[in-house]
Amino acid sequence: MTTSPSLSAAAATETPATPSPSEAQPDTKPEGKPKLAERKQAALPVLEQLFSFYPHLFGAEFLPLKRGIFQDLLARHPDVFARDALKAALAVHTRSTRYLQCVAAGKARHDLDGAAVEDMAPEHVVQALVELHRRRQARSQDDLRPKLRAQLSAAFEASGLSRQDFLARVPPQDEAMTALLDEALAQSTQKIARQEALNKAFEASGKSAREFADMYGVHERDVIKAALASKRRAQASAVAT
């Protein structure tokens, strides 16, 4: 089988740390670099097979995998993958920076056929964002916390959940990360309050978005955005209850 340069390079250079929340539980035992390198090297043949079968999932652009993908792969390819080798390869894959990036982006989880089958859970987005921040901060002298705070705010707003429901789903963080998350949610809470007030006034007006915007001197796109955000939050709240 022809080796894909992009896949091999990615698997060989990624630095595993906290496992992806979608596939494995964090392993807190420290490992030496030789052992990590050996694990990545051992996983390459299986990763190459996965790439050949499912380039839409394991190719140049990774997609988040549905939970239970391990069992799906074993069932579809019973004579191809050894259980332990497949498990180890998926662990390397889902701990990779490229995989965490697609989780942090909030992309839906996909099955083997490439169909989006499950929304990405907000807590998994947060875990991926925090892990990516830690990896980047370790290589940078710049303070990357403002960027992470903005990303956490965006993740909270995209979830459509209330602050209470969001925090109930996000696993505990260390003191520094907890403080940063609190700041992010405080900023978003103020923004959401303004959006809700705008949408309430818009709904009570009985006007179109353009008419309302012209009457009150606001941008039409802000009126529409507030209405859509309010609807999304209401839907998420209904699901949560």
Shape: elongated
Fraction of residues in β-strands: under 5%
- Number of DSSP helices? 12
Distance between the termini: 50 Å
- Low-confidence sequence ranges: 1-31
Order of helices and strands: HHHHHHEEHHHHHH
Number of strands: 2
Helix content: 55-70%
What composes the largest sheet?
A: 2 strands, antiparallel
- With strands numbered from the N-terminus, the spatial order across the biggest sheet is 1-2
Mean pLDDT equals: 86
Radius of gyration, taken over Cα atoms and rounded to an integer in Å: 21 Å
Q: What structural class is derived from the secondary structure elements? A: mainly alpha
Please indicate the count of domains. Answer: 2
Give a structural overview.
The chain is mainly alpha-helical and 241 residues long. It folds into 2 domains: 116 residues, ProQ/FinO domain (Fertility Inhibition Protein O, Chain: A, Domain 1, Orthogonal Bundle), CATH 1.10.1710; 118 residues, no CATH class. Strands 1-2 form a two-stranded antiparallel sheet. 29% of the residues are buried.
Short description, anyone?
This protein is mainly α and 241 residues long. The chain is 68% helix and 2% strand. The protein has helices at residues 5-13, 33-53, 55-58, 69-76, 83-95, 97-104, 122-139, 145-159, 163-169, 175-205, 209-216, 220-240; strands at residues 109-110, 116-118.
